[in-house]
Amino acid sequence: MITRLLQLLDASPVNFLAVKTLETELQQAGFEPLDAAQPLGSMPQGRQFYVKKNDSSLYAFRIGRRPLSEAGFHIICAHCDSPTFRIKPNAEMTGEGGIVRLNTEVYGGPIMSTWFDRPLSLAGRVILRSSDPMRPQTRLLHVRRPLLQISNLAIHFNRQVNDGVKLSKQKDMLPLLGIVSEELERGQLLMNVITEELQVGAGDVLDFDLYLFDATPACTFGVHDEFISSGRLDDLSMVFAGLDALLMAGSRGEAETTQVLAIFDNEETGSQTKQGAGSPFLSSILQRIVSLQGGTGEDYFRAVEQAFMVSADNAHAWHPNYSEKYDPTNHPVLGGGPVIKFNAAQKYASDAASAAVFSELCRLAGVPCQRFVNHSDVAGGSTLGNILASSLPLRGVDMGNPILAMHSVRETGSVRDHEYCIRAFTQFYLS
């Protein structure tokens, strides 16, 4: 199970490739791809399908036996984007000796210092010319070899580096790409990488969405291999736990309730995009499913009232070196099971009623359950649940597995927690 997670993480360095990984897994399990711009067709019991938005979000469905107005939807939602650095247009910056750096901008809120002095590479999508200017071709790019590095300034020039240094996003976070070896390469190194990887001509490339990622593979560590070390655990570990639970629930036979896996993009930048949790896209698909089953608008509203949402986004694990940063009585630990997240300012969707539902599902699955509340002097962030609930008034709980170093280039999780989470999610889909 953990070997599978590590493989899925390595195949998914950015949002577009995470969606491609999901798509491949779903198709192998018999889910059919549908185009949201086309008629979705009838919705008989047992039908399995998925739709995508912007190639960076995906929504999978398995139609259940019970009427939606009675059973509602069982929804697990997560997000496939993570903090990183986006490559700007006209990115190449050539300096002394022909050394080329790439101009970048920050995506989300990374711990920037963790990106220094490690092998990095490029992934994303490239847009190519086609016969229809309104529908250009999209190709995914995943450069698997180490290609770039953001290098630190030597301590000899910065004696205060271990006392803390304020980093400039524009000056300090520019990765080295290579050295121009001939004049024809000037301004073309990045384009050469793109065209060689995709085997296309430079004149066919119209634009791109490319990002940096850590080229070091995901792995386990610890005396008992009990820890997971990888980039993008927040939130791909929840994405793939949801995927495995959906597939496992399907192997158990006929679905009673309609099961939904909603994977959004752009959570790290606020979710207010057409492919984010703030979009009405999921709501519109749910309405269409109800309608295609012969239901009315009234049936849709009833289905929403009967639905339950698990907003799965990782939680902060207790760090043994910084115990003063945590709430004195609600600090989840690695290996202690999934975490229900609470916030008095309503930054999370959890309340006593929804938390009781999820904790009972964990009990039935034989899984321990933890609680997280921020230290009262430390402001916390928000996630998918409350944003989605503002447009879809769903009962729901915000939860996640505990991890360390959230938003670092490499985060740390627990093998046991991942296994626990899949069991809890499977129980939810089957309940």
Structure characterization notes:
By secondary structure, the chain is an alpha/beta fold. It has two domains: 2-82 and 231-430, Aminopeptidase; 84-214, Aminopeptidase i, Domain 2 (Roll), CATH 2.30.250. The protein is 26% helix and 26% strand. It contains ten helices and 20 strands. A hairpin with a 4-residue loop joins strand 5 (84-94) and strand 6 (99-107). Helix 2 (15-28) packs parallel to helix 5 and helix 6 (281-292) packs across helix 7. The two termini are 23 Å apart.
Q: What structural keywords apply?
A:
431 residues; alpha/beta; Aminopeptidase; Aminopeptidase i, Domain 2; 2 domains; nine-stranded mixed sheet; three-stranded antiparallel sheet; 10 helices; 20 strands; globular
SSE topology sketch:
Elements: H1 2-10, H2 15-28, E1 32-33, E2 48-53, E3 57-62, H3 68-71, E4 73-79, E5 84-94, E6 99-107, E7 120-128, E8 137-142, E9 176-179, H4 189-198, E10 205-214, E11 219-221, E12 227-230, H5 233-251, E13 258-264, H6 281-292, H7 297-306, E14 308-312, E15 315-316, E16 339-342, H8 352-364, E17 370-373, H9 384-389, E18 395-400, E19 402-403, E20 411-414, H10 415-430
Parallel strand pairs: 1-2, 4-13, 4-14, 14-18, 15-19, 16-17
Antiparallel strand pairs: 2-3, 3-13, 5-6, 6-9, 7-8, 7-10, 11-12, 12-20, 16-18
Helix pairs in contact: 2-5, 5-10, 6-7, 8-10
